[in-house]
Protein backbone atom coordinates (compact mmCIF):
# COMPACT_ATOMS: atom_id res chain seq x y z
CA UNK A 1 0.00 0.00 0.00
CA UNK A 2 1.29 3.43 -0.91
CA UNK A 3 2.06 5.63 2.10
CA UNK A 4 3.37 8.69 0.23
CA UNK A 5 3.82 9.62 -3.42
CA UNK A 6 6.67 11.90 -4.42
CA UNK A 7 4.17 14.66 -5.22
CA UNK A 8 2.49 14.38 -1.81
CA UNK A 9 5.80 14.32 0.06
CA UNK A 10 7.16 17.27 -1.92
CA UNK A 11 4.04 19.31 -1.21
CA UNK A 12 4.18 18.42 2.50
CA UNK A 13 7.85 19.31 2.94
CA UNK A 14 8.25 22.11 0.42
CA UNK A 15 10.99 20.04 -1.17
CA UNK A 16 11.57 18.89 -4.73
CA UNK A 17 11.55 15.32 -6.04
CA UNK A 18 14.16 14.37 -8.64
CA UNK A 19 11.79 11.79 -10.13
CA UNK A 20 8.39 10.24 -9.49
CA UNK A 21 8.27 7.56 -6.80
CA UNK A 22 5.96 5.96 -4.25
CA UNK A 23 6.94 4.65 -0.83
CA UNK A 24 5.21 2.08 1.38
CA UNK A 25 7.08 2.93 4.59
CA UNK A 26 9.69 5.23 6.13
CA UNK A 27 13.07 4.26 7.58
CA UNK A 28 15.93 6.06 9.31
CA UNK A 29 18.20 3.00 9.58
CA UNK A 30 19.57 0.85 6.75
CA UNK A 31 19.79 -2.10 9.18
CA UNK A 32 16.00 -2.29 9.40
CA UNK A 33 15.07 -0.71 6.06
CA UNK A 34 12.51 -2.59 3.98
CA UNK A 35 12.21 -2.47 0.18
CA UNK A 36 9.84 0.36 -0.74
CA UNK A 37 10.76 2.55 2.25
CA UNK A 38 11.60 6.23 2.04
CA UNK A 39 15.04 6.52 3.68
CA UNK A 40 15.40 9.65 5.83
CA UNK A 41 19.05 10.76 5.99
CA UNK A 42 19.06 12.14 9.53
CA UNK A 43 22.29 13.25 11.14
CA UNK A 44 22.98 11.57 14.48
CA UNK A 45 26.18 9.78 15.49
CA UNK A 46 26.84 9.65 11.74
CA UNK A 47 25.42 11.58 8.82
CA UNK A 48 22.59 9.65 7.18
CA UNK A 49 23.70 10.96 3.79
CA UNK A 50 26.62 8.52 4.03
CA UNK A 51 24.13 5.63 3.85
CA UNK A 52 21.86 6.80 1.03
CA UNK A 53 23.62 4.79 -1.66
CA UNK A 54 23.35 1.67 0.50
CA UNK A 55 19.67 2.35 1.20
CA UNK A 56 18.90 2.64 -2.52
CA UNK A 57 20.83 -0.56 -3.23
CA UNK A 58 18.69 -2.31 -0.59
CA UNK A 59 15.52 -1.28 -2.38
CA UNK A 60 14.58 2.05 -0.82
CA UNK A 61 11.96 3.81 -2.94
CA UNK A 62 13.70 7.16 -2.43
CA UNK A 63 15.72 9.16 0.09
CA UNK A 64 14.91 12.38 1.95
CA UNK A 65 18.10 14.44 1.74
CA UNK A 66 19.40 18.01 1.93
CA UNK A 67 21.97 17.39 -0.85
CA UNK A 68 22.83 14.78 -3.44
CA UNK A 69 25.15 12.45 -1.53
CA UNK A 70 28.50 11.37 -2.85
CA UNK A 71 28.23 8.25 -4.98
CA UNK A 72 24.53 8.82 -5.73
CA UNK A 73 23.40 9.77 -9.24
CA UNK A 74 21.60 13.09 -9.59
CA UNK A 75 18.66 11.33 -11.24
CA UNK A 76 18.32 8.89 -8.33
CA UNK A 77 14.94 8.99 -6.56
CA UNK A 78 15.47 11.74 -3.99
CA UNK A 79 13.39 14.32 -2.14
CA UNK A 80 15.58 17.39 -1.66
CA UNK A 81 14.82 19.68 1.30
CA UNK A 82 16.75 22.42 3.08
CA UNK A 83 17.02 20.47 6.34
CA UNK A 84 16.29 16.76 6.73
CA UNK A 85 14.91 16.90 10.31
CA UNK A 86 12.70 19.88 9.44
CA UNK A 87 11.55 17.94 6.37
CA UNK A 88 10.65 14.92 8.53
CA UNK A 89 8.75 17.20 10.92
CA UNK A 90 6.78 18.68 8.01
CA UNK A 91 5.99 15.19 6.72
CA UNK A 92 4.81 14.23 10.22
CA UNK A 93 2.52 17.24 10.47
CA UNK A 94 1.09 16.43 7.05
CA UNK A 95 0.61 12.80 8.06
CA UNK A 96 -1.35 13.91 11.10
CA UNK A 97 -3.42 16.44 9.13
CA UNK A 98 -4.60 14.03 6.44
CA UNK A 99 -6.06 11.37 8.76
CA UNK A 100 -9.35 11.28 10.66
CA UNK A 101 -7.88 8.93 13.27
CA UNK A 102 -8.68 9.46 16.93
CA UNK A 103 -5.30 10.22 18.51
CA UNK A 104 -4.08 9.62 22.06
CA UNK A 105 -0.71 10.95 23.26
CA UNK A 106 1.06 9.39 26.25
CA UNK A 107 3.86 10.75 28.40
CA UNK A 108 5.15 10.14 31.92
CA UNK A 109 8.34 9.64 33.88
CA UNK A 110 7.64 5.92 34.08
CA UNK A 111 5.37 3.56 32.18
CA UNK A 112 4.70 5.49 28.99
CA UNK A 113 5.92 2.73 26.65
CA UNK A 114 4.02 -0.01 28.51
CA UNK A 115 0.89 2.17 28.55
CA UNK A 116 1.28 2.88 24.85
CA UNK A 117 1.49 -0.86 24.17
CA UNK A 118 -1.56 -1.54 26.34
CA UNK A 119 -3.47 1.03 24.30
CA UNK A 120 -2.27 -0.53 21.06
CA UNK A 121 -3.47 -3.95 22.23
CA UNK A 122 -6.88 -2.65 23.30
CA UNK A 123 -7.57 -0.46 20.27
CA UNK A 124 -6.34 -2.83 17.55
CA UNK A 125 -9.43 -5.02 17.91
CA UNK A 126 -11.68 -1.97 17.50
CA UNK A 127 -10.15 -0.34 14.43
CA UNK A 128 -7.02 0.12 12.36
CA UNK A 129 -4.49 1.28 14.95
CA UNK A 130 -1.14 2.98 14.37
CA UNK A 131 1.33 3.38 17.24
CA UNK A 132 4.88 4.43 17.99
CA UNK A 133 7.55 1.78 17.46
CA UNK A 134 9.64 0.79 20.49
CA UNK A 135 10.37 4.03 22.39
CA UNK A 136 10.34 6.39 19.41
CA UNK A 137 9.21 9.34 21.50
CA UNK A 138 11.71 12.16 20.94
CA UNK A 139 12.28 15.05 18.49
CA UNK A 140 12.65 12.65 15.55
CA UNK A 141 10.62 9.71 16.89
CA UNK A 142 7.32 11.59 17.09
CA UNK A 143 7.42 13.09 13.57
CA UNK A 144 8.60 9.73 12.22
CA UNK A 145 5.62 7.99 13.85
CA UNK A 146 3.21 10.59 12.44
CA UNK A 147 4.75 10.41 8.96
CA UNK A 148 4.36 6.62 9.01
CA UNK A 149 0.66 6.82 9.86
CA UNK A 150 -1.61 5.36 7.13
CA UNK A 151 -4.31 7.75 5.97
CA UNK A 152 -7.08 5.31 6.84
CA UNK A 153 -6.06 4.76 10.48
CA UNK A 154 -8.93 4.72 12.98
CA UNK A 155 -6.76 5.20 16.07
CA UNK A 156 -3.22 6.41 16.72
CA UNK A 157 -1.16 6.09 19.90
CA UNK A 158 1.74 8.54 20.11
CA UNK A 159 4.37 8.28 22.85
CA UNK A 160 6.09 11.54 23.79
CA UNK A 161 9.19 11.72 25.97
CA UNK A 162 11.73 14.29 27.12
CA UNK A 163 15.00 14.78 28.97
CA UNK A 164 15.18 18.58 28.94
CA UNK A 165 12.68 21.42 29.44
CA UNK A 166 10.71 22.60 26.44
CA UNK A 167 10.66 19.34 24.49
CA UNK A 168 7.13 18.06 25.02
CA UNK A 169 4.96 21.02 23.99
CA UNK A 170 6.11 21.25 20.33
CA UNK A 171 5.80 17.48 19.92
CA UNK A 172 2.32 17.50 21.45
CA UNK A 173 1.27 20.33 19.13
CA UNK A 174 2.57 18.28 16.23
CA UNK A 175 0.62 15.18 17.34
CA UNK A 176 -2.60 17.14 18.08
CA UNK A 177 -4.14 14.45 20.30
CA UNK A 178 -7.81 14.13 21.13
CA UNK A 179 -6.75 12.54 24.43
CA UNK A 180 -3.54 13.25 26.37
CA UNK A 181 -2.42 11.05 29.29
CA UNK A 182 0.30 11.56 31.92
CA UNK A 183 1.10 8.18 33.48
CA UNK A 184 3.14 9.48 36.43
CA UNK A 185 5.75 12.03 37.50
CA UNK A 186 8.97 10.96 39.20
CA UNK A 187 12.58 11.99 39.74
CA UNK A 188 13.77 11.11 36.24
CA UNK A 189 16.09 13.41 34.24
CA UNK A 190 16.24 15.50 37.42
CA UNK A 191 19.66 16.82 36.49
CA UNK A 192 17.94 19.01 33.86
CA UNK A 193 15.29 20.40 36.24
CA UNK A 194 15.26 22.31 39.52
CA UNK A 195 12.87 19.87 41.17
CA UNK A 196 10.14 17.29 40.51
CA UNK A 197 7.57 20.08 40.11
CA UNK A 198 9.56 21.25 37.10
CA UNK A 199 9.32 17.76 35.64
CA UNK A 200 5.55 17.80 36.27
CA UNK A 201 5.17 21.10 34.41
CA UNK A 202 7.08 19.67 31.46
CA UNK A 203 4.98 16.50 31.42
CA UNK A 204 1.79 18.57 31.62
CA UNK A 205 2.89 20.39 28.47
CA UNK A 206 1.43 17.43 26.59
CA UNK A 207 -1.94 19.12 27.14
CA UNK A 208 -0.77 22.04 24.95
CA UNK A 209 -1.48 19.93 21.90
CA UNK A 210 -5.03 18.86 22.77
CA UNK A 211 -7.59 19.27 20.02
CA UNK A 212 -10.85 21.21 20.68
CA UNK A 213 -13.04 19.30 23.16
CA UNK A 214 -10.05 17.10 23.97
CA UNK A 215 -9.62 15.12 27.19
CA UNK A 216 -6.73 15.52 29.65
CA UNK A 217 -6.07 12.47 31.85
CA UNK A 218 -4.11 13.00 35.08
CA UNK A 219 -2.64 10.61 37.63
CA UNK A 220 -4.30 11.74 40.89
CA UNK A 221 -1.87 9.85 43.14
CA UNK A 222 1.39 11.64 42.34
CA UNK A 223 2.60 14.36 44.72
CA UNK A 224 2.58 16.84 41.83
CA UNK A 225 -1.01 16.13 40.81
CA UNK A 226 -1.97 19.76 41.50
CA UNK A 227 0.67 20.95 39.03
CA UNK A 228 -0.67 18.59 36.36
CA UNK A 229 -4.25 19.55 37.11
CA UNK A 230 -3.54 23.30 36.92
CA UNK A 231 -2.13 23.02 33.41
CA UNK A 232 -4.90 20.66 32.36
CA UNK A 233 -7.52 23.13 33.59
CA UNK A 234 -5.88 26.04 31.78
CA UNK A 235 -5.80 24.15 28.49
CA UNK A 236 -9.30 22.72 28.88
CA UNK A 237 -10.77 26.20 29.32
CA UNK A 238 -9.25 27.27 26.01
CA UNK A 239 -10.51 24.27 24.03
CA UNK A 240 -13.76 23.53 25.90
CA UNK A 241 -12.29 20.19 26.84
CA UNK A 242 -12.61 18.09 29.95
CA UNK A 243 -10.37 16.50 32.55
CA UNK A 244 -10.48 13.14 34.25
CA UNK A 245 -8.15 11.51 36.75
CA UNK A 246 -7.23 7.99 37.79
CA UNK A 247 -5.74 6.40 40.89
CA UNK A 248 -6.62 5.71 44.51
CA UNK A 249 -7.29 9.41 45.15
CA UNK A 250 -9.42 9.83 42.04
CA UNK A 251 -13.19 10.09 41.95
CA UNK A 252 -13.29 9.46 38.17
CA UNK A 253 -11.39 6.19 37.82
CA UNK A 254 -10.79 5.10 41.40
CA UNK A 255 -8.43 2.23 42.07
CA UNK A 256 -9.68 0.26 45.07
CA UNK A 257 -7.61 -2.91 45.25
CA UNK A 258 -4.63 -4.57 43.57
CA UNK A 259 -3.80 -8.26 43.95
CA UNK A 260 -0.64 -9.89 42.62
CA UNK A 261 -1.33 -13.54 41.78
CA UNK A 262 1.83 -15.20 40.50
CA UNK A 263 2.51 -13.57 37.14
CA UNK A 264 -0.86 -11.78 36.97
CA UNK A 265 -2.06 -8.47 38.38
CA UNK A 266 -5.76 -8.28 39.19
CA UNK A 267 -7.24 -4.88 39.98
CA UNK A 268 -10.61 -3.66 41.19
CA UNK A 269 -11.71 -0.10 40.45
CA UNK A 270 -14.85 2.04 40.27
CA UNK A 271 -15.86 4.24 37.35
CA UNK A 272 -19.15 6.09 36.89
CA UNK A 273 -20.46 4.42 40.08
CA UNK A 274 -19.95 0.98 38.50
CA UNK A 275 -17.40 -1.66 39.50
CA UNK A 276 -14.54 -2.34 37.10
CA UNK A 277 -12.44 -5.51 37.32
CA UNK A 278 -9.42 -5.97 35.07
CA UNK A 279 -6.19 -7.93 34.88
CA UNK A 280 -2.75 -7.73 33.27
CA UNK A 281 -0.53 -10.70 32.43
CA UNK A 282 2.38 -9.40 34.51
CA UNK A 283 2.79 -8.78 38.22
CA UNK A 284 3.17 -5.23 39.46
CA UNK A 285 1.20 -2.47 41.08
CA UNK A 286 2.55 -0.06 38.46
CA UNK A 287 1.00 -2.15 35.69
CA UNK A 288 -2.41 -1.79 37.34
CA UNK A 289 -2.04 1.99 37.52
CA UNK A 290 -0.88 2.24 33.90
CA UNK A 291 -3.73 0.01 32.80
CA UNK A 292 -6.32 2.13 34.61
CA UNK A 293 -5.03 5.28 32.90
CA UNK A 294 -5.10 3.45 29.57
CA UNK A 295 -8.70 2.35 30.13
CA UNK A 296 -9.66 5.96 30.84
CA UNK A 297 -8.04 6.92 27.52
CA UNK A 298 -9.86 4.16 25.66
CA UNK A 299 -13.22 5.42 26.86
CA UNK A 300 -12.27 9.03 26.10
CA UNK A 301 -11.46 7.99 22.53
CA UNK A 302 -14.95 6.57 22.15
CA UNK A 303 -13.91 2.90 22.02
CA UNK A 304 -15.76 0.04 23.71
CA UNK A 305 -14.60 -0.32 27.33
CA UNK A 306 -15.77 -3.91 27.84
CA UNK A 307 -13.90 -5.15 24.78
CA UNK A 308 -10.84 -3.19 25.89
CA UNK A 309 -10.85 -4.85 29.34
CA UNK A 310 -10.94 -8.29 27.68
CA UNK A 311 -8.02 -7.45 25.38
CA UNK A 312 -6.06 -5.87 28.22
CA UNK A 313 -6.22 -9.20 30.04
CA UNK A 314 -4.14 -10.78 27.29
CA UNK A 315 -1.44 -8.10 27.24
CA UNK A 316 2.03 -8.73 28.67
CA UNK A 317 5.13 -6.49 28.67
CA UNK A 318 8.01 -6.60 26.21
CA UNK A 319 11.47 -8.03 26.88
CA UNK A 320 13.34 -5.94 29.44
CA UNK A 321 10.21 -4.33 30.84
CA UNK A 322 9.06 -6.85 33.43
CA UNK A 323 8.81 -10.09 31.47
CA UNK A 324 9.04 -13.24 33.59
CA UNK A 325 10.40 -16.57 32.49
CA UNK A 326 11.40 -19.91 33.94
CA UNK A 327 14.99 -21.00 33.41
CA UNK A 328 15.35 -24.79 33.69
CA UNK A 329 18.78 -25.59 35.12
CA UNK A 330 18.64 -29.38 34.69
CA UNK A 331 17.34 -30.93 31.45
CA UNK A 332 16.16 -34.05 33.31
CA UNK A 333 15.10 -32.77 36.74
CA UNK A 334 13.03 -29.89 35.40
CA UNK A 335 11.92 -28.85 38.87
CA UNK A 336 15.49 -27.58 39.27
CA UNK A 337 14.64 -24.18 37.83
CA UNK A 338 14.68 -20.51 38.73
CA UNK A 339 12.47 -17.58 37.79
CA UNK A 340 13.90 -14.55 36.00
CA UNK A 341 12.25 -11.12 36.02
CA UNK A 342 13.76 -9.11 33.17
CA UNK A 343 13.60 -5.39 33.99
CA UNK A 344 16.89 -4.57 32.29
CA UNK A 345 15.64 -1.86 29.95
CA UNK A 346 15.82 1.13 32.31
CA UNK A 347 15.60 2.31 35.92
CA UNK A 348 14.78 5.24 38.18
CA UNK A 349 13.82 5.36 41.88
CA UNK A 350 10.10 4.94 41.18
CA UNK A 351 10.37 2.07 38.72
CA UNK A 352 13.02 0.30 40.77
CA UNK A 353 10.82 0.56 43.85
CA UNK A 354 7.97 -1.00 41.87
CA UNK A 355 10.28 -3.79 40.72
CA UNK A 356 11.29 -4.45 44.34
CA UNK A 357 7.60 -4.84 45.21
CA UNK A 358 7.14 -7.39 42.42
CA UNK A 359 10.20 -9.34 43.54
CA UNK A 360 9.08 -9.24 47.19
CA UNK A 361 5.73 -10.78 46.22
CA UNK A 362 7.29 -13.57 44.11
CA UNK A 363 7.09 -17.18 45.27
CA UNK A 364 10.39 -19.00 45.79
CA UNK A 365 10.83 -22.77 46.02
CA UNK A 366 12.82 -24.54 48.70
CA UNK A 367 14.82 -27.77 48.69
CA UNK A 368 15.33 -27.88 44.93
CA UNK A 369 18.80 -26.31 44.66
CA UNK A 370 22.26 -26.80 46.13
CA UNK A 371 21.57 -24.13 48.78
CA UNK A 372 18.18 -25.52 49.74
CA UNK A 373 16.54 -22.21 50.59
CA UNK A 374 14.97 -20.41 47.65
CA UNK A 375 15.85 -16.70 47.62
CA UNK A 376 14.55 -13.44 46.20
CA UNK A 377 17.58 -11.85 44.57
CA UNK A 378 17.85 -8.34 43.14
CA UNK A 379 20.63 -7.42 40.71
CA UNK A 380 20.56 -3.66 40.26
CA UNK A 381 22.61 -1.15 38.27
CA UNK A 382 23.10 2.60 38.49
CA UNK A 383 20.14 4.92 37.89
CA UNK A 384 21.31 7.78 35.69
CA UNK A 385 20.38 11.47 35.28
CA UNK A 386 19.18 12.02 38.86
CA UNK A 387 21.10 15.22 39.53
CA UNK A 388 23.00 16.30 42.66
CA UNK A 389 21.04 14.02 45.02
CA UNK A 390 21.85 10.87 43.05
CA UNK A 391 24.05 9.29 45.73
CA UNK A 392 21.39 9.70 48.43
CA UNK A 393 18.65 8.43 46.10
CA UNK A 394 20.60 5.22 45.59
CA UNK A 395 21.29 4.79 49.30
CA UNK A 396 17.64 5.44 50.18
CA UNK A 397 16.57 2.31 48.30
CA UNK A 398 17.88 0.28 51.24
CA UNK A 399 14.94 1.57 53.30
CA UNK A 400 12.26 0.63 50.74
CA UNK A 401 9.47 -1.32 52.43
CA UNK A 402 9.80 -4.22 49.97
CA UNK A 403 13.41 -4.77 50.99
CA UNK A 404 12.25 -6.69 54.06
CA UNK A 405 11.20 -9.58 51.79
CA UNK A 406 14.27 -9.51 49.52
CA UNK A 407 17.10 -11.82 50.53
CA UNK A 408 20.12 -10.60 48.57
CA UNK A 409 20.95 -7.47 46.56
CA UNK A 410 23.89 -7.47 44.13
CA UNK A 411 24.92 -4.00 42.94
CA UNK A 412 26.56 -2.81 39.74
CA UNK A 413 28.10 0.61 39.09
CA UNK A 414 29.69 3.44 41.09
CA UNK A 415 26.35 4.94 42.16
CA UNK A 416 25.05 1.60 43.39
CA UNK A 417 27.98 1.48 45.80
CA UNK A 418 25.88 3.81 47.95
CA UNK A 419 23.03 1.27 48.10
CA UNK A 420 25.51 -1.54 48.70
CA UNK A 421 26.95 0.31 51.71
CA UNK A 422 23.50 1.16 53.08
CA UNK A 423 22.19 -2.40 52.99
CA UNK A 424 22.22 -4.53 56.13
CA UNK A 425 25.07 -7.04 55.99
CA UNK A 426 22.62 -9.93 55.75
CA UNK A 427 21.29 -8.65 52.42
CA UNK A 428 24.52 -7.23 51.00
CA UNK A 429 25.61 -9.22 47.98
CA UNK A 430 28.38 -8.52 45.51
CA UNK A 431 29.36 -5.12 44.11
CA UNK A 432 31.00 -4.78 40.70
CA UNK A 433 31.79 -1.73 38.62
CA UNK A 434 30.19 -3.11 35.44
CA UNK A 435 27.71 -5.76 34.36
CA UNK A 436 30.47 -7.50 32.40
CA UNK A 437 32.41 -8.03 35.64
CA UNK A 438 29.45 -9.72 37.32
CA UNK A 439 28.58 -12.03 34.40
CA UNK A 440 31.30 -14.66 35.11
CA UNK A 441 30.00 -15.01 38.66
CA UNK A 442 26.33 -15.55 37.82
CA UNK A 443 26.47 -19.34 38.06
CA UNK A 444 27.80 -19.03 41.63
CA UNK A 445 25.32 -16.36 42.69
CA UNK A 446 22.02 -17.98 41.66
CA UNK A 447 20.44 -21.36 42.27
CA UNK A 448 17.37 -23.45 41.60
CA UNK A 449 14.37 -22.18 43.54
CA UNK A 450 15.49 -18.55 43.37
CA UNK A 451 13.61 -15.62 41.82
CA UNK A 452 16.01 -13.08 40.32
CA UNK A 453 15.13 -9.54 39.22
CA UNK A 454 17.62 -7.52 37.16
CA UNK A 455 17.17 -3.79 36.62
CA UNK A 456 19.28 -0.72 35.83
CA UNK A 457 19.60 2.22 33.48
CA UNK A 458 20.06 1.12 29.89
CA UNK A 459 23.70 2.24 29.75
CA UNK A 460 24.52 -0.14 32.61
CA UNK A 461 23.93 -3.11 30.26
CA UNK A 462 21.99 -5.28 32.72
CA UNK A 463 20.86 -7.20 29.62
CA UNK A 464 24.26 -8.93 29.77
CA UNK A 465 23.40 -10.25 33.21
CA UNK A 466 19.93 -11.33 32.06
CA UNK A 467 21.44 -13.17 29.08
CA UNK A 468 23.96 -14.89 31.35
CA UNK A 469 21.14 -16.18 33.54
CA UNK A 470 19.20 -17.38 30.50
CA UNK A 471 22.27 -19.27 29.25
CA UNK A 472 22.29 -21.35 32.44
CA UNK A 473 19.11 -22.96 31.19
CA UNK A 474 18.27 -26.06 29.20
CA UNK A 475 15.18 -26.78 27.10
CA UNK A 476 12.66 -28.97 28.86
CA UNK A 477 12.87 -32.61 27.64
CA UNK A 478 10.29 -33.78 25.14
CA UNK A 479 7.78 -36.43 26.04
CA UNK A 480 8.23 -39.79 24.29
CA UNK A 481 4.85 -39.18 22.69
CA UNK A 482 5.94 -35.88 21.15
CA UNK A 483 7.24 -35.64 17.60
CA UNK A 484 11.02 -35.54 17.35
UniProtKB/TrEMBL annotation:
It holds the Pfam family Mur_ligase_M. It is found in: Cytoplasm. Pathway: Cell wall biogenesis; peptidoglycan biosynthesis. Its EC number is 6.3.2.10. It is an enzyme of class 6 (ligase). This is UDP-N-acetylmuramoyl-tripeptide--D-alanyl-D-alanine ligase. Involved in cell wall formation. Catalyzes the final step in the synthesis of UDP-N-acetylmuramoyl-pentapeptide, the precursor of murein. Keywords: ATP-binding, Cell cycle, Cell division, Cell shape, Cell wall biogenesis/degradation, Cytoplasm, Ligase, Nucleotide-binding, Peptidoglycan synthesis.
